[in-house]
């Protein structure tokens, strides 16, 4: 490969970034598939309204829907960057994905762990059971697609103290939001919250913040294993 072609390739993507992105190829395909999946999840909420649809906070009382919204926003910017080749939009996508990916990994870990341990902890009695495609669309595909975006379509990001602070802030911001909704509705979105005392809920949210930070660190380690590290040899 000529020096000119090498320079052109490096200008389009970070040396450690596995695939070209933004681009109208695989990058756009992953973002289109992701947005189709996320749209299906939102459509499910409107097609099957339930008790929480009329309550204060709507379905945004669920961490799942908050994570889905961040993931959707990230992929919208990703697809726009693919279609316009805008580095600014690509940067916004990367910033959002840096939060969305560990958040969705956290949601998947917590949900499926509790789901297999005791479904009544995450599924209220009044909620009709989710169909399998909807369950996967809500609680598995967002984390899978964001991890693919992170590993294949994104430049490396530094994981440091800011990651821990961001995770802790988000955990306790969600706690504040849940308590605000409870003050209006008189119920929690997840039965697990009802089963815990206030100190136990504080511990749960602190643990969730730490787990999200650990997810970010783990994703950074996997990125280095797959793509290589700065100053080191890129994986082949």
UniProtKB/TrEMBL annotation:
Domain of life, per UniProt, equals Eukaryota
Q: Where are the transmembrane segments?
A: 21-42, 62-83, 95-114, 134-152, 159-177, 202-226
One Pfam family per UniProt = Far-17a_AIG1
Sorted UniProt keywords: Membrane, Transmembrane, Transmembrane helix
Principal location class: membrane
What the entry lists under InterPro entries is as follows:
ADTRP_AIG1 (IPR006838)
Q: How does it sit in the membrane?
A: Multi-pass membrane protein
The Gene Ontology CC terms held by the record are:
endomembrane system; membrane
Any idea where this protein resides? Endomembrane system
Record-linked PANTHER family: ANDROGEN-INDUCED PROTEIN 1-RELATED, AT02829P-RELATED
What protein am I looking at?
A: FAR-17a/AIG1-like protein
Per the UniProt record, the source organism is Mytilinidion resinicola
